[in-house]
Amino acid sequence: MAQTPSPFRTAEQRSRDRQAKKLALMEAAVRMFNTRGFHATSLDDVAASLGVTKPTVYHYLGNKENVLLECLRFGLRQLLDAATSARAEEGIAADRLRSFLVAYAQMNMSDFGRCVIRTPDEALSEESRDVLRALKQQIHGEMRSLIVEGIDDGSIACSDPNLLAFTLAGALNWPARWFHEGGGHSREETARRLVDNLAAGFLPRS
Q1: How do residues 18-32 score in pLDDT, each as one tens digit?
Q2: 197 CB neighbour count, 10 Å cutoff
Q3: Residue 61 CA from chain centroid, whole number
Q4: For residue 8, what pLDDT is reported?
Q5: Which structural domains are found in the chain, ordered by start?
Q6: Does residue 188 contact residue 110 with C-beta atoms inside 8 Å?
Q7: Residues 203, 157 contacting (CB under 8 angstroms)
Q8: What angle do CA 130, 135, 137 make, to 5 degrees?
Q9: What's the per-residue H, E or C state across the chain?
Q10: Chain segment 53-97, per-residue pLDDT in tens
Q11: Residue 82 CB coordination number (10 Å)
Q12: 8 Å CB contact between 22 and 60
């Protein structure tokens, strides 16, 4: 006997719907944080941009600081995911590092990446700053680890992997402040060119 289709959504469907709504709210918020600044943006503004109410924002994300924290964590976790993907690639460590750096640069030129770079620590409570510092330390550790692997397999020339990791991150964080779509090159092309320039400094000389 054929089963009557249920008019009620499954738990999995409800979860997907919730995540989609949460992401839409975060995307709206992060764009406003980037253009107006955190303090000049209200949750009323975020809600109005999507045609919902302020309590809807609270329901999915909490208060304004938590909205910002969720946006920053989302951006940083994308960087950690990029590191994981790069580590899974075959070949020499220098190629895996370059793959990660290109993804890192592209992420920093996205809305969430810009928010990570442009948000001052003072905008967050000490507890929230600790959460972000831990994620940033993980990202630094991933980059440093790839550099060490490259030193070990001879594909990277470097005497101080910690300093090189800070140098690369500093160089690839800066485009979050100057890159604009339509400025001549795509995010992908800009990221690749930036990494090509940086790689000239850490690849072994023939």
Answers
A1: 889 999 999 999 999
A2: 10
A3: 18
A4: 67
A5: 9-62 (1.10.10.60), 66-202 (1.10.357.10)
A6: no
A7: yes
A8: 90
A9: CCCCCCCCCCHHHHHHHHHHHHHHHHHHHHHHHHHHCCCCCCHHHHHHHHCCCHHHHHHHHCCHHHHHHHHHHHHHHHHHHHHHHHHCCCCCHHHHHHHHHHHHHHHHCCHHHHHHHHCCHHHCCHHHHHHHHHHHHHHHHHHHHHHHHHHHHCCCCCCCHHHHHHHHHHHHHCHHHHCCCCCCCCHHHHHHHHHHHHHHHHCCCC
A10: 999 999 999 999 999 999 999 999 999 999 999 999 999 999 999
A11: 20
A12: yes
On the question of pLDDT at 128 being above 70, the answer is yes
Query: Residues, the chain, total?
Result: 206
Sign of the dihedral through C-alpha 120, 123, 126, 128: negative
Residues 166 and 146: their CA atoms lie apart, in Å, by: 13
Structure tokens of 18? 């919730």
pTM for this entry: 0.86
